[in-house]
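Holo model, NAP. Inputs:
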Amino acid sequence: MRISVVGPGRIGGNTARQALKAGHEVVLSFSRDAGRLEGLAGELGPGASAATPAQAVQSSEVVVVAVPWDAIDEALAQTGSLDGRIVIDTTNQYGRSEMPAAGQTAAQFNAARMSGARYTKSFNTLTSAFQAETADRTGDERVVQWICGDDADANRVVAHLIEAMGYQPVDLGGTADCEVMEAPRRPGAVYGEEYRLADARAVVEAVNAGRPIPPTPSY
Ligand SMILES: NC(=O)c1ccc[n+]([C@@H]2O[C@H](COP(=O)([O-])OP(=O)(O)OC[C@H]3O[C@@H](n4cnc5c(N)ncnc54)[C@H](OP(=O)(O)O)[C@@H]3O)[C@@H](O)[C@H]2O)c1
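Output:
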């Protein structure tokens, strides 16, 4: 698959690295310094290239959005239409620009500004350092990357990708139900916490039933 990473910084750089390891092609775009994208593509090696955001998105099936909250509108202006593309939004709502309305999840807010995209959210709950460090765990120790999104087929494609990238995918449901995977870190949420599959299943059951999630596990 061809995956474009819009904003290959800490989170985007790690997703690019893991996607390449899994045998995918990666196109890097969006930087205040175009030379940096070429440099990173060279460093990542075969399968990686740099392009403008519009070129990258047009040539990719999956688009990873990994920019700071305040740069999302600028990134979307540069990508142009995301129609039909599976988007993985890794962002968290830290910044000064417009925020989700009361009662609206950040995923719903961002899905609305990426209209036409097959929107999903993932890779947002754990620090970039922890994601990089734990990417290739095996068996029961695999770290969960949560997914939410309203297009079930897109969620499935993203789940396969996450698995190939070295993590345990867990689908939490639609964009209306994913508040527990959104910032900030707090009791009663999975944001900021390591999860493994067995404990994640109990979270999904609780969210589906509209119950508080079980206490945070420790490993
Ligand atoms: N860091 C974490 O631990 C973490 C964990 C989970 C989720 N997140 C979320 O993931 C998203 C990305 O975070 P990050 O820590 O990976 O950020 P980062 O390391 O600062 O990377 C941001 C990327 O966006 C590009 N960029 C930023 N502003 C730009 C602009 N105005 N024009 C063009 N390019 C621009 C940067 O390119 P240049 O620097 O080359 O210009 C860089 O490639 C954020 O929404 C964050 O909340 C972060």
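The CA atoms of residues 20 and 45 lie 9 Å apart. The mean pLDDT is 97.
Archived with the compound record.
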